[in-house]
Amino acid sequence: MAANPQRAEIALEVNGREHRLTIDTRTSLLDLLREQLGLTGAKKGCDHGQCGACTILLDGRRANACLALAVAHDGARVTTIEGLADGERLHPVQEAFVEHDGFQCGYCTPGQICSAVGMLDEARAGWPSAVTEDLGGDPPALDDREIGERMSGNICRCGAYPGIVAAIAQASR
Ligand code: FES
Ligand code: FES
User: What range(s) does the 2Fe-2S ferredoxin-type domain occupy (predicted)?
Assistant: First the structure.
Protein backbone atom coordinates (compact mmCIF):
# COMPACT_ATOMS: atom_id res chain seq x y z
CA MET A 1 0.00 0.00 0.00
CA ALA A 2 1.34 3.46 -0.87
CA ALA A 3 2.63 5.48 2.06
CA ASN A 4 0.79 8.54 0.82
CA PRO A 5 -2.53 7.48 -0.59
CA GLN A 6 -3.85 9.64 -3.37
CA ARG A 7 -6.39 12.22 -2.26
CA ALA A 8 -8.99 13.96 -4.32
CA GLU A 9 -11.57 16.67 -3.86
CA ILE A 10 -15.14 15.83 -4.83
CA ALA A 11 -18.53 17.51 -4.61
CA LEU A 12 -21.66 15.62 -3.64
CA GLU A 13 -25.24 16.62 -3.01
CA VAL A 14 -26.43 14.49 -0.11
CA ASN A 15 -30.05 14.70 0.98
CA GLY A 16 -30.34 18.12 -0.64
CA ARG A 17 -27.17 19.53 0.92
CA GLU A 18 -24.00 20.34 -1.01
CA HIS A 19 -20.72 18.95 0.30
CA ARG A 20 -17.18 19.51 -0.89
CA LEU A 21 -14.93 16.82 0.51
CA THR A 22 -11.30 15.78 0.32
CA ILE A 23 -11.10 12.02 0.29
CA ASP A 24 -8.71 9.12 0.02
CA THR A 25 -9.46 7.86 -3.49
CA ARG A 26 -10.01 4.33 -2.10
CA THR A 27 -13.02 5.47 -0.03
CA SER A 28 -16.35 3.84 -0.76
CA LEU A 29 -19.46 5.96 -0.83
CA LEU A 30 -20.70 3.98 2.17
CA ASP A 31 -17.65 4.84 4.29
CA LEU A 32 -17.80 8.45 3.16
CA LEU A 33 -21.45 8.73 4.21
CA ARG A 34 -21.01 6.95 7.52
CA GLU A 35 -17.59 8.17 8.61
CA GLN A 36 -17.15 11.59 7.03
CA LEU A 37 -20.73 12.82 7.00
CA GLY A 38 -22.04 10.97 10.06
CA LEU A 39 -24.96 9.51 8.12
CA THR A 40 -25.11 6.07 9.70
CA GLY A 41 -28.53 5.08 8.36
CA ALA A 42 -27.03 3.09 5.47
CA LYS A 43 -25.61 -0.01 7.14
CA LYS A 44 -22.46 -2.01 6.46
CA GLY A 45 -23.59 -5.60 6.38
CA CYS A 46 -21.27 -7.57 4.11
CA ASP A 47 -19.25 -4.75 2.45
CA HIS A 48 -19.26 -7.00 -0.65
CA GLY A 49 -22.45 -6.15 -2.53
CA GLN A 50 -24.29 -9.20 -1.26
CA CYS A 51 -26.74 -8.06 1.41
CA GLY A 52 -28.23 -4.72 0.32
CA ALA A 53 -27.98 -3.17 3.80
CA CYS A 54 -26.03 -0.22 2.33
CA THR A 55 -28.55 0.60 -0.43
CA ILE A 56 -28.90 4.31 -1.20
CA LEU A 57 -30.31 6.26 -4.13
CA LEU A 58 -27.55 7.49 -6.42
CA ASP A 59 -28.81 10.03 -8.96
CA GLY A 60 -32.28 8.61 -8.27
CA ARG A 61 -31.39 4.95 -8.80
CA ARG A 62 -30.78 2.39 -6.09
CA ALA A 63 -27.17 1.39 -5.62
CA ASN A 64 -25.01 -0.52 -3.18
CA ALA A 65 -22.94 2.19 -1.53
CA CYS A 66 -20.30 -0.35 -0.43
CA LEU A 67 -19.47 -1.08 -4.08
CA ALA A 68 -19.36 2.54 -5.24
CA LEU A 69 -16.04 4.35 -5.13
CA ALA A 70 -16.83 7.86 -3.97
CA VAL A 71 -14.27 9.44 -6.32
CA ALA A 72 -16.12 7.93 -9.29
CA HIS A 73 -19.28 9.83 -8.35
CA ASP A 74 -18.07 13.41 -8.23
CA GLY A 75 -21.09 15.67 -8.71
CA ALA A 76 -23.64 12.97 -7.91
CA ARG A 77 -26.91 13.39 -6.04
CA VAL A 78 -27.27 10.97 -3.13
CA THR A 79 -30.34 10.20 -1.06
CA THR A 80 -30.01 8.12 2.08
CA ILE A 81 -32.67 6.91 4.48
CA GLU A 82 -32.12 10.14 6.45
CA GLY A 83 -33.26 12.15 3.42
CA LEU A 84 -36.50 10.37 2.56
CA ALA A 85 -38.85 11.96 5.07
CA ASP A 86 -40.33 15.38 4.42
CA GLY A 87 -39.57 17.08 7.74
CA GLU A 88 -41.68 15.25 10.33
CA ARG A 89 -43.65 13.48 7.63
CA LEU A 90 -42.40 10.00 6.80
CA HIS A 91 -42.04 8.85 3.21
CA PRO A 92 -45.02 6.63 2.22
CA VAL A 93 -42.70 3.58 2.07
CA GLN A 94 -41.48 4.33 5.61
CA GLU A 95 -45.08 4.67 6.81
CA ALA A 96 -46.00 1.37 5.18
CA PHE A 97 -43.05 -0.41 6.84
CA VAL A 98 -44.24 0.86 10.24
CA GLU A 99 -47.83 -0.13 9.51
CA HIS A 100 -46.94 -3.66 8.38
CA ASP A 101 -44.16 -4.40 10.88
CA GLY A 102 -41.63 -4.65 8.08
CA PHE A 103 -38.68 -4.99 10.43
CA GLN A 104 -37.51 -6.99 13.40
CA CYS A 105 -33.95 -6.02 14.36
CA GLY A 106 -34.10 -3.23 11.81
CA TYR A 107 -30.54 -3.53 10.58
CA CYS A 108 -31.53 -4.20 6.98
CA THR A 109 -34.45 -1.76 7.08
CA PRO A 110 -32.79 1.42 5.74
CA GLY A 111 -31.51 -0.53 2.75
CA GLN A 112 -34.85 -2.26 2.26
CA ILE A 113 -36.68 1.07 2.27
CA CYS A 114 -34.25 2.86 -0.08
CA SER A 115 -34.32 -0.15 -2.37
CA ALA A 116 -38.12 -0.21 -2.34
CA VAL A 117 -38.28 3.49 -3.23
CA GLY A 118 -35.95 2.93 -6.19
CA MET A 119 -37.74 -0.25 -7.20
CA LEU A 120 -41.16 1.40 -7.23
CA ASP A 121 -39.83 4.08 -9.57
CA GLU A 122 -38.38 1.38 -11.85
CA ALA A 123 -41.70 -0.48 -11.93
CA ARG A 124 -43.64 2.75 -12.60
CA ALA A 125 -41.30 3.43 -15.52
CA GLY A 126 -42.25 0.01 -16.92
CA TRP A 127 -38.97 -1.76 -16.32
CA PRO A 128 -39.44 -5.54 -16.39
CA SER A 129 -37.92 -7.93 -13.86
CA ALA A 130 -36.71 -11.51 -14.42
CA VAL A 131 -40.23 -12.78 -13.62
CA THR A 132 -42.26 -10.28 -15.67
CA GLU A 133 -44.20 -12.26 -18.24
CA ASP A 134 -45.64 -9.50 -20.43
CA LEU A 135 -42.70 -7.50 -21.73
CA GLY A 136 -44.62 -5.31 -24.10
CA GLY A 137 -47.47 -3.96 -22.02
CA ASP A 138 -48.24 -1.55 -19.22
CA PRO A 139 -46.09 -1.23 -16.10
CA PRO A 140 -46.07 -4.68 -14.46
CA ALA A 141 -48.49 -5.37 -11.60
CA LEU A 142 -46.49 -5.66 -8.39
CA ASP A 143 -47.72 -8.96 -6.97
CA ASP A 144 -45.74 -10.77 -4.26
CA ARG A 145 -43.63 -12.62 -6.82
CA GLU A 146 -42.63 -9.41 -8.61
CA ILE A 147 -41.85 -7.68 -5.32
CA GLY A 148 -39.80 -10.66 -4.10
CA GLU A 149 -37.79 -10.79 -7.30
CA ARG A 150 -37.22 -7.04 -7.47
CA MET A 151 -36.14 -6.90 -3.81
CA SER A 152 -33.97 -10.02 -3.97
CA GLY A 153 -30.77 -8.00 -3.51
CA ASN A 154 -31.85 -7.06 0.02
CA ILE A 155 -31.38 -9.77 2.61
CA CYS A 156 -33.14 -9.77 5.99
CA ARG A 157 -31.51 -12.18 8.37
CA CYS A 158 -34.40 -12.23 10.80
CA GLY A 159 -37.03 -13.00 8.21
CA ALA A 160 -39.29 -9.96 8.21
CA TYR A 161 -40.08 -10.65 4.55
CA PRO A 162 -43.89 -11.02 4.86
CA GLY A 163 -44.14 -7.55 6.42
CA ILE A 164 -41.67 -6.08 3.94
CA VAL A 165 -43.60 -7.44 0.95
CA ALA A 166 -46.93 -6.26 2.40
CA ALA A 167 -45.50 -2.80 3.03
CA ILE A 168 -44.14 -2.47 -0.49
CA ALA A 169 -47.40 -3.74 -1.97
CA GLN A 170 -49.28 -1.04 -0.04
CA ALA A 171 -46.84 1.68 -1.07
CA SER A 172 -47.20 0.64 -4.71
CA ARG A 173 -50.94 1.36 -4.76
S1 FES B 1 -22.95 -3.80 2.80
FE2 FES B 1 -23.26 -3.29 0.75
S3 FES B 1 -24.31 -4.97 -0.07
FE4 FES B 1 -23.83 -5.60 1.94
S1 FES C 1 -35.03 -6.67 10.25
FE2 FES C 1 -33.30 -7.73 10.97
S3 FES C 1 -32.08 -8.15 9.26
FE4 FES C 1 -33.93 -7.36 8.54
Answer: 8-84
Low-confidence ranges of the chain (pLDDT < 70): 1-4
Residue 157 CB–ligand 1 contact under 6 Å: no
Could you tell me if the CB of 106 is within 6 A of ligand 2?
yes
Q: What is the pLDDT of residue 10?
A: 98
53 C-beta closer than 6 A to ligand 1:
yes
Gap from CA of 69 to ligand 1 centroid (Å): 13
Round to whole Å and give the CA distance between 59 and 56: 10
Report strand pairing: 7-14 vs 77-79: parallel
CA dist 138 and 119 (Å) reads: 16
pLDDT of residue 35: 97
